[in-house]
């Protein structure tokens, strides 16, 4: 996945907010990247555009060799439900649905008939160690457990990339460790992950650090872990 001089301008009344000012970024297969930067630097805007949740004002996005910069809302929905997984700080689980049904949600936005949806959801829950809670509802779970269910939901479509916006922001230290260990496992199995964080310790667990400031990328480098792996 690649961007070329990506720009995003939000129009707020008479004011233009330049949230992205020309971002060139390549996310490679099996990358484990964190995006760091002050609040308001454009991290979420970039993730939303890369994740087909929003469109750029200008610039290009290439995904799987196709120019997806200006595709229709329907096509974007297709990519979201078939190619991308999302994890949010506040989990975003539906409170009335069971854990299993929550994990199956991405299928309901997919036009394709997917056989064995339940089986795939159970397999995803198993990967995050939450299969034993498949019939619970979210408020019967701890925060850490909810985030693992949300990760299972992000995994269920076997996405090319998982985007996680501050996924550890609402968790205690013990659960932060669990989520990071889980991400390590997923990356070792070939998953590509792009994660926004404020936490420098969390950033160390990734392989690549992308630093943003004022709508631009000001640093893109390997972490110690990334350097060790590159040898
Ligand atoms: N929907 C929106 N409408 C107008 N301005 C927005 C909107 N979303 C974000 N912004 C502005 O764009 C800039 C980047 O925001 P954001 O990408 O959320 O930053 P970050 O995630 O790094 O905190 C900020 O100045 C923010 O106020
Ligand atoms: Mg943000």
UniProtKB/TrEMBL annotation:
Which keywords appear in this protein's UniProt record, sorted alphabetically?
ATP-binding, Nucleotide-binding, Transport
Name the source's superkingdom: Bacteria
Please indicate if the UniProt record lists Cell membrane as a keyword. Answer: no
**Which SMART domains does this chain map to?**
AAA
Family matches, as PANTHER family: ABC TRANSPORTER ABCH.1, IMPORT ATP-BINDING PROTEIN
Transmembrane ranges, per UniProt, are none
- A single GO molecular function, which one? ATP binding
Q: What is this protein called?
A: ABC transporter ATP-binding protein
| Gene source species | Intestinicryptomonas porci
Domain ABC transporter, first and last residues per copy: 1-230
Q: Which InterPro entries match?
A: AAA+_ATPase, ABC_transporter-like_ATP-bd, ABC_transporter-like_CS, ABC_transpr_LolD-like, MacB-like_ATP-bd, P-loop_NTPase
